[in-house]
Amino acid sequence: LMLGFLIADVSPAVTVPLLMELIENGYGRSKAIPSVLLASGGLNSVTAIVGYGTVFSLIFSSGLPAYAPTVLGILEIFGFGFGFGTLLGLFASRLWRFSSKKLRFTMLLLSVISLIFLGKKVGMSGGGCLSAISMSACVAHQQRHSARELSDVSALFAQLWSAAGQPLLFGLLGASVSIRILLPAYLQFGVYVVIIGLLMRAIAVFVCVKMGTTWAM
């Protein structure tokens, strides 16, 4: 199960740049396909993080009752993730009309960074990420009639991602790889795991798109 949650996670380093490029070029905008994939990718990552932590707690005892990891996982997703993030999004929406473009950008940036660090501090990393997504989605929903203002703030985030976020993310990922422990047997097993995971994911995507959407394939 722990390996399954690791494989199920989606790397933002790969998906976010591609989806941001699709949004900039206008592909799938009428059906909001890139936006749906961005949101679902974030939810997928949060589910994988929480699921991995729950299974880890069940296998390696932390001194808590057996039901505690499941209860904490539910609180992390629905309480801290959806609930707290939505409340902050509603509060930020109240301040939206009184702020300029740069102030809105700064408010959202500092808020999501604070939520992510708060999640780390309280031991709910996945909940912190989900809370940041929920807050941003709530603001976008509340201000859906102000498309121009939302696009201006979104453009600033895109510039920040291209200039700083993307290089930092790839740099940290590369620095975390230890070449000395990559034995040939591990590499062979890793290739098999990735191929099987990709095949299963491709089948799942095909079924979901065919059964749940009107998107063309």
Explain what the structure shows.
α4 (68-96) packs antiparallel against α5, α4 packs parallel to α6 (125-142) and α5 (101-121) packs across α7 (147-175). The chain is built from eight helices and no strands. The protein is globular. With 217 residues, it is an all-alpha fold. The longest helix has 29 residues, at 68-96. It has helices spanning 2-8, 12-25, 33-59, 68-96, 101-121, 125-142, 147-175, 184-212.
Q: Which stretches of 5+ consecutive residues score pLDDT under 50? A: none
| Largest sheet report | none
Radius of gyration: 19 Å
Helix and strand succession? HHHHHHHH
Helix proportion range = over 70%
- How many strands in all? 0
- Assembly form of the protein: single chain
N-end to C-end Cα span: 31 Å
Rough outline: globular
Structural class assignment: mainly alpha
% residues in beta strands: under 5%
How many DSSP helices? 8
Mean pLDDT rating: 81
